[in-house]
Design brief:
285 residues, six-stranded mixed β-sheet, alpha/beta, two-stranded antiparallel ribbon
Length: 285
Amino acid sequence: MTHYLGIDLAWGEGTATRPAKETGVALIDETGTVLHAGWARGIDPVAEWIVEVAPPGAVIAIDAPLVVENQAGMRLCERQVGMGYGRWHVAANASNTALGWQGGVALRKKLEARGFVYTDGIRPPGPLERTMFECYPYTTIVGMAELGYEEKRPRYKRFDMALPSALRRQARADACDELIRRMAALGTATPPLHIASHEVSRSLLEPSPLVDAAYKHREDMLDAVLCAWTAAIWHRHRERVQVLGADDVPDAAGRRGTIVAPARDGQRVAGRAMRVLREGSSPSP
């Protein structure tokens, strides 16, 4: 039975005086049962957890830039997020070598040194390979019709600044709880997910806290579970995803910086990628 790992990685690696932020980690199997869920802090502990729990054939989806070669601006895959999902109010943060957070690249290198294989999402994994790819939970949320976000993404990460300040935390918590309610109904989805099958992920079913630190702790776990589900989607139902950045220029080792993104028909950017490469900018979504 294939195991699927989800990593909501803190992009910053931390320093001796400033520890890295928490990373959410989750492990599910083909039935959608959550086998492990928790948190780690720092690239080395995250890598060690992955090495410990990932058997041969495991698929790992990581929410962090894993291949970054551009010295400025955005990667092609990040521009294509806006192309495909902008109508749902989904966009990606820029990553480049001039920015100070390269935790995803550091994690990829550590895992490759332990025999893990990076995939751009185009080539299917070997049966015994432990494979990793980059994902972005927002594309899973709006790209999987089972979650029912037909118009725009849920605002569960940032405050709605149009609201009075006294109402913003509650509105954020409500959006998060509604997303979790929809995730809790994925037991009969394709592929399935059972967030109540582990005590840690089951705690997501409780009302979201309003205090920022406690809320971020919860959000990291939520995104880790979404990443693990994304790994299962790509591995078992590849027709339901698109590979953003598939036309980008590879690095010296042949790796392309891509995002594996679940997609409905209206979100697919196929046929528009070469225009982006020629023009060097992203068309309006």
